[in-house]
Design goal:
- The chain is mainly α.
- The protein has helices at 10-19, 23-32, 34-47, 50-108, 113-120, 124-134.
- Helix 2 (23-32) packs across helix 3 (34-47) and helix 5 (113-120) packs across helix 6 (124-134).
């Protein structure tokens, strides 16, 4: 039973490449398929002498090390950014608490709610709520 083969099918191309009947066939497949070209180029490199293989391996190790350093630096940057965000958040909470404290003091002194709201940056609704809560 003959199975029809599509020479342009990437799977068929890979099967022929892996079968590797001749260098010519491999080169022809490498011209047709860019992924096979990468594999063929790599095969050429690692098939050379031991010194060339060692140089290739060293280069690949350096690339891997660089990617690891970049990834570690990115993670460190993200963590520093998170910490800065947390510090800013704590600072804003402290500022809000101080504004509320000031608003309460002004209200106790009889300052108008609108003026307290404008002066502290607290919404008028919140100032009215504070006045009801802390009125003597």
């Amino acid at each position: 039973m003959d199975i029809e083969r599509d020479e342009n099918d990437p799977i068929v191309q890979w099967m022929e490449f892996l079968d590797g009947k001749s260098k010519g066939v491999m080169e022809m497949l490498a011209e047709k398929n860019k992924d096979i070209k990468k594999a063929y180029d790599l095969l050429q490199i690692i098939s050379k002498d031991e010194k060339a293989r060692m140089l290739y391996d060293a280069r690949q190790a350096e690339i891997s090390d660089q990617l690891t350093r970049i990834k570690a630096a990115e993670e460190k940057g993200r963590e520093e950014g998170r910490e800065e965000g947390r510090e800013e958040g704590r600072g804003e909470e402290g500022a809000t608490e101080k504004a509320i404290e000031a608003a309460i003091n002004f209200l106790r002194l009889g300052v108008n709610e609108e003026i307290v709201a404008k002066g502290t940056g607290i919404p008028i609704e919140k100032v009215i709520e504070l006045k009801k809560k802390y009125q003597n």
